[in-house]
User: Fold these one by one.
Assistant:
Number 1:
Amino acid sequence: MRRIALACLSALALAACHSHDEDKAAPAAASTAPARPSTAPPPPLPAVANEKHDFTPDITAGDFAAHLRVISSDEYDGRKPGTLGERLTTNYIIEQFKRMGLSPGNKGDWVQTVPAVSTELTGQDSLKLDVSEGGGTEAFAFGTDMVVGTLQAKSDVELKDSDIVFAGYGVNAPEAQWNDFDGLDVKGKTLVVLVNDPGWNGNDPTLFKGREMTYYGRWTYKYEEAARQGAAAVFIVHQTEPAAYGWNVVRSGWTTPRLDLPESEDPAPRLPVAGWLSHEAAQRLFAKAGKNFDDLAKQADVRGFKAVPLDAKANIQLHSNITHSLSNNVIGMVKGSEKPDEAVVYTAHWDHLGHDPALKGHQIYNGAVDNGTGIAALLEIAGKFAQEKPKRTVVFAAVTMEESGLLGSKYYVAHPPFPLNKTVADINMDALPIIGPTKDMEVTGMGQGTLEDTLAEVLKADGRVISGDASPEKGHYFRSDHFNFAKAGVPALAAGGGIDMVTGGKAAGQAAADDYTKNRYHQPTDVYDMRWDFTGVMQNVQAYYQVGDKLANSDEWPTWKDGSEFKAIREKSLAAGNKKK
């Protein structure tokens, strides 16, 4: 995505994905930690994984498709962390790394074990948020009107007669002279807030970054800031355009058990109750309180907006099964021949959303595009490097719990097998479009660093170009694992398939992207399709390889460009490393 506003810097320093408080309650069930693949025999491979395929040492569409078909098969049950699907997935990746001749990448081990806390909300079918207003009570049903959960590791949480306040966007951004909490004591209160940030509608391009989402617009930030302020609960109002995804995506993310890092790894405050309201539910709630939601939402776009208390109180009881478990990053490497202590890192998340027995028909979130494609690309590139002797070490990290808030990469960055000041760059691959060949590759965060210049050089040789994010309002920069590397100062490249298609141009590419978002993203319909044309995605996989190859066989260190908020972080990290020499 294009350059993020410098106004985001303080928010980035505070940024943390939502997590549960493991010290608040003892585990309610035995650990569901998957056995470590390095010490336990793997489960029998499903039939699809046993089908014979003769892999080549090169990057080919046939090999890519073979990996993808296995990773996204029904037998892998949606690759939910902490399940049999995890064991099948991580063992498959390890076996492929071994076949290729890679070495274990985590100090002699194939896995990096990531502690996790799972919160499974019970009684969803009958769960309701009760809102008392003017002597009456309005009930909001789970799944249709709202979704909800606790971000603390507590089996039982109750919200009782909590005053409801409309707090605009729920943003406190002193650099932008914006504070929705000004003069507001939110302790014990339930906040209703808007999704995205005040600049998203483009009415005032000087607000934040205009249409381009800042971190203040991310749903994770809303919960973090409200917890810091002492709120008891937060409900974000879903609207498809500013959220950039439909209610179905929100629902699917809250009906299955939610995973987080334990407090020992992420001690930031957490909300007792967090959730979303549908737009229609918000309109109904506000109307019962004598207010017009849409009118207040427009007022919240204007600088100086003050929070509006509603004549309403929220009540809900949450009962959850709390399970402490382990999940695994899988890490392989090709050791550098001349500078083995300097590492180029490729990342792709292996996890997805598992399955939902409440769904009618197909219940598995296969995640073929998201992110079977990234893992297939990781394996293909690893196989290519395994045949070579790069000067620098090349690391291949298949990380866990991206879908739960980038938790696997967050843990990797906090416990890096190679020091961050010796990590040359991260090249992240997530949800690679399979739409046919394009004239471009879209760079998320374009303008941030010199890695995009390296990519541009690679593409130029193939008659292609880089392009900026076509949908900056969707906040893609904050939604994948490269963001954790960037926050730590490591130059990170996040580039996906472009939209300027060789056949059909930009209109066809945008139509394909919109179709995926509407009809397959985070839905059981994201499945492998035998009719897919892999020509375009393989061009992109080759480009990822070539960028890494240039970095792995040079003495150059990519940098953040002037104006990037990550530049100072990197300079400080490198300076600290130099002092230790």
Number 2:
Amino acid sequence: MYELKQYQFVKESRDILFEYCKTIAPQDFVNENSSFGRGGSLRNLLVHIANTYEFWIANTALKKNVMYAEYGANENILDIIELFKHVDNFMSEFLETIETPNSEIECKINGMKKMVEPFKLFSHVITHEYHHKGQILSLSRHLGYIPVDTDIMR
């Protein structure tokens, strides 16, 4: 199943980002810059990524009732790493379920019920993560750091 392998690539790339974030000063990690979205800080963008996995995968696809991670409850990169361990756990569960052929998941998009393929949800959350990973690296450059290469192909 390619999805498992692809998510492994996502996690490897994410781990490189996390190692890089360990080099960022704590005050810079939580420094908010409105040019990078609502409350755009490195920490807030990472929590937002996790929230998207929580919404689409845990709560929508798996029908769990996961409480969304809060920005303030994740004060540093070690908290974020722990948060993503939870994301990885329900992603593992989700990736096991999408092997069922012709399965669809009911969700609401703009208030309308729709049926979507699990692979579409999977594609959405990982492309969303990469979009914000780019913002995180750009924001770190704005703060005076030299971003690392987090591409899958490096």
